[in-house]
Amino acid sequence: MSAAVAVTIGSVIFIAILFRRQAPLLRARQQAIAALCSQRGLLPGALPSDFAMLGNIDRRLLTNSYASADHAVAVADYMRPAGKHTQFFTLLAFTVAGLDVPYVSVTRRELGTIVVGGTPTLELESIDFDNRFMVRAKDRRCAVMLLDPSVMQLLLDCADVNFDMVGDKVLTYINRAAEPAHRPSEPVEFEMLFKFWDGFVSRVPELLRSEYGATK
């Protein structure tokens, strides 16, 4: 048995034990998440491929997973083995129709990106934003267009949210360990990611659509 497989199995066992101990709170969270997702027409059963930017992930590490019928939108809690520890995230993936954007990543400075691979960092003209977020981008011009004042303000308002984007795909996520304390039964991560999704799609700059639109 390889070390990687052993770590994954160990993490799954740990997660199973943790779930058993926190069952009442988890059930309350599951019910609240189901209600939120139902309001948006999302159905149970997001797939690992819905979060393709993360690479190949074990389906067993996704819980509370929901997706639209065409899987253009997917949301889930995600547990990732990290050595002797387990990292807990909430993920939301969605599509912004009509775009073909080179890779860009925006993360809180203390976290680092969830996606493997590095691209050059850049700074914007907002000191407050630069102090709180790290921007990595394959194409500086595209990143500056995308992160206009309206989108930067959205990120500041949704301070726990990070995102990676390439083409027309966006992967947003919250590192649950880095959040302020709240009741475990409350799905605040889902609420915040949905808020970001709504705001992001409506704020995509028209100039970005013109300059980095998908070609048919």
Description:
It is a single chain. The chain is of the alpha+beta class and 216 residues long. Helix content is 37%, strand content 26%. It has one domain (3-211). It has helices at residues 3-21, 23-39, 127-132, 140-146, 149-157, 188-203, 206-211; strands at 43-44, 62-67, 74-82, 85-95, 101-108, 121-122, 133-137, 162-167, 169-175. A nine-stranded antiparallel sheet has the order 1-2-3-4-9-8-5-7-6. α5 packs antiparallel against α6 (188-203).
Q: TL;DR of this structure?
A:
With 216 residues, the chain is of the alpha+beta class. 37% of the residues lie in helices and 26% in strands. It has helices at residues 3-21, 23-39, 127-132, 140-146, 149-157, 188-203, 206-211, and strands at 43-44, 62-67, 74-82, 85-95, 101-108, 121-122, 133-137, 162-167, 169-175.
Blueprint of the fold:
Layout: H1 3-21, H2 23-39, E1 43-44, E2 62-67, E3 74-82, E4 85-95, E5 101-108, E6 121-122, H3 127-132, E7 133-137, H4 140-146, H5 149-157, E8 162-167, E9 169-175, H6 188-203, H7 206-211
Antiparallel strand pairs: 1-2, 2-3, 3-4, 4-9, 5-7, 5-8, 6-7, 8-9
Helix pairs in contact: 5-6
Residue share in helices?
25-40%
Number of distinct beta strands: 9
- Percentage of β-strand residues: 25-35%
The number of domains: 1
What sequence of helices (H) and strands (E) makes up the elements? HHEEEEEEHEHHEEHH
Low-confidence stretches: none
Taking all residues together, what is the mean pLDDT?
86
Computed CA radius of gyration, to the nearest angstrom = 17 Å
* C-alpha geometry: globular
Alpha-beta content class: alpha+beta
Number of helices: 7
Largest sheet: 9 strands, antiparallel
Oligomer: single chain
Cα end-to-end separation = 47 Å
Q: Largest beta sheet: what is the strand line-up? A: 1-2-3-4-9-8-5-7-6
